[in-house]
Amino acid sequence: MKLLFYSHYFTPSVGGVETIVLSLALGLSELRARQGLAEFDLTLVTATPAEDFDDRTLPFHVLRQPSFRQLFRAIRSSDIVHVAGPAISPLVLGLLTNRLVAVEHHGFQAICPTGQLLIEPRNIPCPGHFMAGRHCECLRCRSDNNWRTSGKLWLLTFVRRFLCSHAAANIMPTEWLNGLVSLPNAVSAPHGIETITLPIEPFSPSGPPLILFQGRLVTTKGLPVLLEAAKILRSGHREFQLLVIGDGPERSALQDLAEKLELSSCVRFVGRISAADLDSVIAQASLIVLPSLGGEVFGLVLAENMLRGLPIIASDLGCFVEVLGDTGLTFRLGDAIDLASKIARILDDSAFASRLGGRARQRMIDYYPRGNMIEAHARLYRKMYVAAHS
After folding, report:
1. Where residue 328 falls among pLDDT bands split at 50, 70, 90?
2. Omega of the bond leading into 12 within 30 degrees of 0 (cis)
3. Does the fold of domain 210-367 match that of domain 2-192+369-389?
4. CA separation (Å) from 79 to 2, 99, 107, 111, 385?
5. What average pLDDT score do residues 345-368 get?
6. 288 Cβ neighbours under 8 A, 6+ residues apart
């Protein structure tokens, strides 16, 4: 079966979409039919340049920055076209050439012009203005107040939704997202991660507890809420260190905010950390906080740290609540006071924190292994192919 993956972003770019697409493509390439031949002849198409990455190390063909003609030929020669996010060009070409098209939703582009489900000027969650028909609210939702750009994004949301409604499958990583997007031919296929890990060794910090934030430094990740919570904890004379792992366009502004809140002595921004060093740094943490305001459909950072067996506090976004289950604590989205109280609870009860971490790790092993993700997608492609040829 000839399978084409289209992902606008792909390695060496770093992000959740890139991680899932690479993991899924590698896993599908490893599947074998009964005769021992590869079940899927996979080609991955992306707009991301290779830079210094060697595509020859991958077990599938990679076509980067294709011309329109190259993209058309690649799609026409495929049996199934898998689009990571509702990218318009491959969707249109796939449907025009009568290919079987599956769209995997990594964001909210089919129900929100910005794709974040966040009201940007006020940095608060969007209640779903586009789906409710409150389109004037969508047009106002631009931090730069550029009406032309806002109008273009608004119109493209109708186009994306129309195209997705004609896809053979709309793949959702969480049931929560499925309920929000509300598209036909929806299929649930949770993301999965590699669950073969070394046993977690208990860590006894020699200094103050270490609170960790990991993520891109952008508005949707909610780091200002965590900084406000840290200020509240410091005013109560609590000793701790807050380590911020990650980089992004708002790093300078966030560092200024930490200084304004008089947190310079207990907050460290360390930027990106190499994969080789990340585990050892995170293993020193007393807890992980994910204060995201929006833009999340699964929570890959959440899942990875659940597998590490660390206690987690996350905002009560629907996807976080679904993936975390009862193995961590959630706080009211954007509420620094509630977050501070949850952090205090973890820091004050090490036995409770340890139980949460153990349950979180077991939940990942039970429900979100990488093999389940790969098999769910393979099963879907087989079903699509058989239905189309029967």
Report:
1. very high
2. yes
3. yes
4. 5, 6, 25, 28, 8
5. 95
6. 212, 213, 214, 282, 305, 310, 311, 312, 313
Which tokens go with 161?
A: 């939704």
210-367 sits in which CATH class?
Answer: alpha beta
- What CATH number matches the domain at 2-192+369-389, 3.40.50.2000, 3.50.50.60, 3.40.50.1220, 3.40.50.2300? 3.40.50.2000
Alpha-carbon span 237 to 70, nearest angstrom: 62
Backbone angles phi, psi at 166, to 5 degrees: -105, 5
Q: What pTM does this model have?
A: 0.92
Q: Which residues contact 42 (CB under 8 A, 6 or more apart)?
A: 3, 4, 5, 25, 28, 29, 60, 61
DSSP state of 197: -
